[in-house]
Amino acid sequence: MIDQVTGAGALPFAVQLKALLDQEARYQPKLSGLRIIESAQDNGLRMTVKLRDFQVRELLSLTRFFGFSSETFSLAVNLLDRFLAVMKPKHLACVGLCCFYIAVKTSEEEKSVPLASDLIRISQNRFTVHDMMRMEKIILEKLYWKVKAPTALHFLRFFHSQIQQQMDAE
Asked: Which residues form the Cyclin-like domain (predicted)?
């Protein structure tokens, strides 16, 4: 659906932008959940900005290690934020790795998707493939299986393509 919105000049700029903004609104983390994260103190019981940032750095490391696209990383962060906005951060390492795995399966070619056991081994986490599959199911259910979210990267590419079209037309 995102590809249709940003496809080669199918609709006028304003219509394409409105469609992308409408999609984005449906895939944003709940604001109340993000405010809780921002205001939380590091007491070990709640998600904090520091814990979230650490997990995002882990996602970036995995993205670079496997050579995956920026789109995969952006989607993984989007999934993580959306999930953390509605759930407590219990088993954060497993949540982060599952968000990454979902993003990889959504954004990358099927032949590039690593095995769950390889992800666990490489990330040096202490949970099983079964734990990971169970957490993946929980995340997908809490996000209502809506995983193909527009990210900041989609907007950047959209604006870049519009600028490029303007420059080519001149």
From this structure: 57-141
Residue 25 has pLDDT above 60, yes or no: yes
Q: Which CATH architecture has domain 31-159?
A: Orthogonal Bundle (1.10)
Helix residue ranges per DSSP H, the chain:
2-5, 13-26, 31-39, 49-66, 70-84, 92-107, 116-123, 129-142, 152-169
Domain extents for the chain? Answer: 31-159
**Mean local confidence (pLDDT), 147-159:** 84
Q: Which long-range contacts (CB under 8 A, 24 or more apart) does 11-19 make?
A: 13/162, 16/158, 17/158
- pLDDT for 27 equals 66
Alpha-carbon span 61 to 67, nearest angstrom: 10
Res 32 pLDDT > 80: no
Residues 16, 158: contact at Cβ < 8 Å?
yes
Q: Is the pLDDT of residue 40 over 70?
A: no
Compute how many other C-beta atoms are within 10 angstroms of the C-beta atom of residue 167.
Answer: 8
Distances (CA, A) of 152 to 70, 73, 77, 119: 10, 11, 11, 26
